[in-house]
Amino acid sequence: MAEEMKASYLSRGTESTDPRILEDLGQEFAALAQEHEVHLLYACESGSRAWGFASPDSDYDVRFVYVHEPEWYLRLEKKRDTIEWKLDETLDISGWDIAKFLRLMRASNPSVMEWLASPIVYREHPAFRRMQELGRASFQPRAGIYHYLHMAKRDYEKFCQAELVWPKKYFYAIRPILAARWILEKHAAPPMRFEELAEAELEPALMPLVESLLEEKMQEGEHTSRPRIDELSSWI
């Protein structure tokens, strides 16, 4: 296993990432692999930076998939299959064992599908690339639609009816609605980039309003609030 894992890792979509963050991530990946005695197969961005509407103070939501040596899987006792590595103001790093990842993929888990669709990949072992094909084959439209509609309903009811609303909370409701529309029309997993979803699924009449709010979010801090936008709340 150790010899097989020496193959070069690939990355993509990291050209605009702060080089200091990439260096920090490299150090974190090396440290967690050594401490937990695992090999990283894949690491990607999973939050607003992957969605394309990060604020200046957005953190890095990094998710990874790892594998143990074969002997680890032969043990009779149940072992933890999640590593929660770091959580601070800049880095949020956690991951799943490959067996858990595959079980969730078979169940068409939306988080798995989004990890695979991430446009920002920090690490990818060449052998892991086949997961894209397996993910497409495992996708279940009904499960995806219910997941995204539940997300939209939760964030709308909790945040978008108040007098003051964080712009990011609007997008936490808008994006899953557009993702559900994408699945309903195309019977395929939605893309991560909000811009691609909006161009395909958002009514043209709403585009100027959403684009203005998006620009506001990307210029202001994560927790900057503004008066509720009744037109947008009604649409949601």
Structural commentary:
This protein folds into two domains: 4-138, Beta Polymerase, domain 2 (2-Layer Sandwich); 141-235, no CATH class. Helices cover 48% and strands 17% of the residues. The protein contains ten helices and eight strands. It has helices at 19-36, 48-51, 98-106, 110-117, 131-138, 141-159, 167-186, 194-201, 207-219, 230-235; strands at 10-12, 39-45, 60-67, 82-87, 91-97, 121-124, 164-165, 226-227. The strands form two sheets. The chain has a six-stranded mixed β-sheet with strand order 1-6-2-3-5-4. A two-stranded antiparallel ribbon has the order 7-8. Strand 4 (82-87) and strand 5 (91-97) form a beta hairpin. The longest helix is centred in the C-terminal third of the chain and has 20 residues, at 167-186. The protein is globular. The relative contact order is 0.14. The model has no long low-confidence stretch (mean pLDDT 92).
Give the helix level as a range of percent. Answer: 40-55%
At CATH's second level, what is the architecture of the largest domain? Answer: 2-Layer Sandwich
Average pLDDT metric? 92
Q: Which structural class best describes the helix and strand composition?
A: alpha+beta
Q: What is the third-level CATH name, the topology of the largest domain?
A: Beta Polymerase, domain 2
- What is the class of the largest domain in the CATH system? Alpha Beta
- Tally the beta strands: 8
Q: What is the terminal-to-terminal distance?
A: 49 Å
Q: Give, in order, the helices and strands.
A: EHEHEEEHHEHHEHHHEH
Biggest sheet overview: 6 strands, mixed
Low-pLDDT runs = none
* SS summary, helix count: 10
Radius of gyration: 19 Å
Any idea what the shape is? Answer: globular
Number of domains: 2
Strand content: 15-25%
Q: Order of strands across the widest beta sheet?
A: 1-6-2-3-5-4
